[in-house]
């Protein structure tokens, strides 16, 4: 018969008590976790308009290459690149801030600038090539970070470029953050489950330069982090299938 060791017995009882508390907490959290059957759709009209691909006119960015053409003064035609400070240099009018303007807004600005210098300042601005357009994908994706934005790109396409979503991703509440016209952030949630199963493809919205796509964790994944921090690291032996041994 094995000798009774009161110290080992006490430690064993303490471990079992901790295990019991941990199991209770897990069951409680799992039972109380909200089931999002119908996540809040994007109903704000301002956000809807902000995310409309067809209604948005492109705004010039740093690194864009522009053709500036003069119909009646071809000797002034130039091809320029938007500098890191957002400006370009042109003959007669020198330096002009162009970053953030649409091509039509820049055309109007140049027309006014050249009006004192030319009789017929008929000008056209063409975006010849685009600079470093990018978006950012973070959260529960395989490769979080910057994703180059080449033309038309939706949320699902951006996530695919980031290596796809992890099993712990909460696909029903993906967050999109965009800078509004007043420089205040606009936040929207999209339900990618509906886009994936084809019931509502409008949830897979089109992205704009410098958007942030954040894929949050599921409730179960958050509980798993809690267990790892507060339970597993305090117990000397933990098997992968969840049983503790004294």
Notes on the structure:
By secondary structure, the protein is of the alpha+beta class. It has three domains: 1-32 and 218-246; 45-53 and 132-215, Roll (Outer membrane lipoprotein wza fold like); 65-129, 2-Layer Sandwich (wza like fold). The protein is 28% helix and 21% strand. It contains six helices and ten strands. It has a five-stranded mixed sheet with strand order 7-6-10-8-9, covered by helices on one side. A hairpin with a 5-residue loop joins strand 6 and strand 7 (145-148). Helix 1 (6-32) runs antiparallel to helix 6 (219-230). The longest helix is centred in the first third of the chain and has 27 residues, at 6-32. It is elongated.
What distinguishing features does this structure have?
3 domains, disordered C terminus, 246 residues, three-stranded antiparallel beta sheet, five-stranded mixed beta sheet, alpha+beta, Outer membrane lipoprotein wza fold like, 10 strands
The first-level CATH class of the largest domain is given as: Alpha Beta
Named at the architecture level, the CATH assignment of the largest domain is Roll
Determine the fraction of residues in helical runs and give it as a percent range: 25-40%
CATH topology of the largest domain: Outer membrane lipoprotein wza fold like
Largest sheet: 5 strands, mixed
Alpha-carbon distance between the two ends:
19 Å
> If strands are numbered along the chain, what order do they take across the biggest sheet?
7-6-10-8-9
The count of β-strands is 10
Q: Tell me the radius of gyration.
A: 28 Å
Which strand-content bin applies to the residues? 15-25%
């Amino acid at each position: 018969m094995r000798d009774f060791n009161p110290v080992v017995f006490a430690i064993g009882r303490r471990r079992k008590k901790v295990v019991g508390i941990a199991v209770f907490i897990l069951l409680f959290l799992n039972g109380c976790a909200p089931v999002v059957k119908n996540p809040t759709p994007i109903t704000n009209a301002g956000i809807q308009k902000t995310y409309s691909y067809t209604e948005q006119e492109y705004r010039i960015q740093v690194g864009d290459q522009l053709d500036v053409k003069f119909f009646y003064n071809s000797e002034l035609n130039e091809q320029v690149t938007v500098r890191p400070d957002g400006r370009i240099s042109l003959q007669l009018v020198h330096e002009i801030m162009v970053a953030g303007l649409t091509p039509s807004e820049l055309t109007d600005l140049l027309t006014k600038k050249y009006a004192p210098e030319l009789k017929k300042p008929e000008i056209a601005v063409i975006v010849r090539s685009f600079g470093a357009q990018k978006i950012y994908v973070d959260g529960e994706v395989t490769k979080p970070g910057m994703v180059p934005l080449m033309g038309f790109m939706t949320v699902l396409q951006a996530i695919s470029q980031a290596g796809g979503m992890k099993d712990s991703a909460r696909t029903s509440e993906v967050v999109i953050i965009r800078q509004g016209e007043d420089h205040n952030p606009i936040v929207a949630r999209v339900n990618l489950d509906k886009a994936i199963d084809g019931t509502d493809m409008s949830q897979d919205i089109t992205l704009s330069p410098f958007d942030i796509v954040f894929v949050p964790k599921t409730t179960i994944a958050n509980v798993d982090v809690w267990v790892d921090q507060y339970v597993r690291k305090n117990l000397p032996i933990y098997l992968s299938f969840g049983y503790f041994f004294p």
